[in-house]
Amino acid sequence: MSGPPVTAGRAHRHPSDPDGPGPAVQRATLGRVRARPPYPRVRRLRATVAASCAALLFASGCSFGEPEPDPAGEPPNLPTPSAPASAGGAGQQAVATVLAKGLRVPWGIAFLPDGGALVTERDNGRILQVGPESGPDGLRVRPVQTITEVAAAGEGGLLGIAASPSYAQDRTLFVYYTAAQDNRVARLQLGGQPTPILTGIPKANVHNGGGLGFGPDGQLYVSTGDAGERPSSQDVKSLGGKILRITPDGKPSAGNPYPNSPVWSLGHRNVQGFTWDAAKRMYAVEFGQNTWDEINQITKGGNYGWPEVEGRAGDRRFTDPITQWATSDASCSGLAATDRLLVTGCLRGKRLWVMELTDTGTLLGQPSELLTNRYGRLRAVAAAPDGSLWVGTSNHDGRGDPAGDDDRLLRVVFAGDDGGRS
Predict the structure, then answer these.
(1) Of 326, 408, 396, residue with least CA distance to 367
(2) Is the pTM of this model over 0.85?
(3) Residues above pLDDT 70, as percent of the chain
(4) CATH architecture of the domain with residue range 47-64+77-416
């Protein structure tokens, strides 16, 4: 990739996310991930083609099986799987492929109609285009814009990115970034000046939130942190510690629970990742303080308890998480859904947690871990149009132990002996 590298040397620390590398392991393992009645498996594939599919990233109109040749009559020259298929429970397997190397703290991922993606780099304010062109070492990576208004410090910088649902027509993007006085959301077209549409989100060295994404209802959702001001999470008049729901113009969306307010849910400490399942249910991953990190199902007007509670409390005033982990095993940032799986990327935990959902949106069995300690700190997780997951490492964020080719973008495919999921 072109452009100067950015080295991170931050000294800030968080109680639930100390620095220091974890022990290296040689295998990526996935625990028991089952699919049982009352629902069938969906989007099956033959295990015999799982490994080859992991290397064929942008097959024309098909996620699995041999791709159609390109116009020159040859299949695309893309990287082979960098981690072998690893068997878990119930015949489940996963294959990891390194798509790109040499990034600096990739934070948000937005896929484009051409099969490529835009990726934000937190500390230097750059937007990178990754693919769809490829070479012998992976997908082509090139900087396409730097957001000069970014004032990166601590956990702040250029964070989330979302493409308009009509991107093919309007070429419009949305970014969440830390500016001199606040965190804000802006609208732009590549090469153009960002136009702020939502300002005044509290900023600090920690707990800046930063998630951005369009929901199934066509509204833009924004996740914010408490910026270290704990009471703000319970204050409906503050934008801190919330999930917000706005129009593409930055106005409060119709149907929000509080009149003339962008607030959709409250009582959050620091949400960076959220997603929706096939049934249009929303989930978010929450950084805890010292005890519990959480996955919550997000509902209109829901109160998730911070700073009054952390983790499951059984308090009727608040919504309990659907699952939780000790902070030493988690500190998760990105979250994506594919078929009936929720997958989150963890910083301190240096792993993916994989959860299977029931028809009602609860968890089936216990979460299983994948890629533990194999690639270091994991942050961004996004579901690609072909059904695979893209995962970004975060080893240059000042709390990791970067390898020579960090940071990296990975592609993860799930498979099984009798079928599986992309």
Answers:
(1) 326
(2) no
(3) 76
(4) 6 Propeller (2.120)
